[in-house]
Amino acid sequence: MTLLSFFGCKNEPICTVNENNAGKQIYDLDEATCFIALKLNKKKSNLNLIRSALIAEENYMNKIGLISENPNPESESESNVEIDINEIVEYALNEEKVDLTKDELTEIYDTEIEYLMFIGVVEE
User: Fold this and answer.
1) Would you call 90 helix, strand, or coil by DSSP?
2) Cys-Cys with 92: which of 41, 43, 56, 59 at CB 3.0–4.6 Å?
């Protein structure tokens, strides 16, 4: 089992990402938060802000009907939906009142795409 981790000054990782989850197509909010924090070289104190940005994104996608609490796998088709990151950023700032800047949110959502590729739900 290989773990990605970022070591701070005390050689303690702020969090870890399980490499065994690569390609499993299961989105885990905590793992996504950690993955993004590690990629962006963030501190442990940034984890809650990243998490709140991801929750705002999930709320936005629920609001527009892109995801639902009760997915019906039989009616699920291949989704090639293009999501406008700018719209998500505006929603996070204005509706969810996430305490991050526009640039920080854009950076988080751009990096989340790498996590989605890691778990195998999107391709380059």
Assistant:
1) helix
2) 56
d(CA 117, CA 124): 7
User: Can you give the pLDDT of all 124 residues of the chain as single tens digits?
Assistant: 444 544 444 556 789 899 999 999 999 999 999 999 999 999 998 999 999 999 999 999 999 988 765 554 444 444 556 678 999 999 999 999 999 999 999 999 999 999 999 999 888 7
Neighbour count for residue 33 (Cβ, 10 Å)? 26
Q: Are 54 and 33 in contact (CB under 8 A)?
A: yes
pLDDT of residue 115: 96
- Residue in the block written with tokens 């995801």: 67
For Cα atoms 73, 25, 117, give the angle at the middle one, nearest 5 degrees. 130
DSSP helix/strand/coil, 101: coil
Instruction: Measure the CA–CA gap between 6 and 12, rounded to whole angstroms.
Output: 8
Q: Residue 66: left (phi > 0), alpha (psi -120 to 50), or beta?
A: alpha
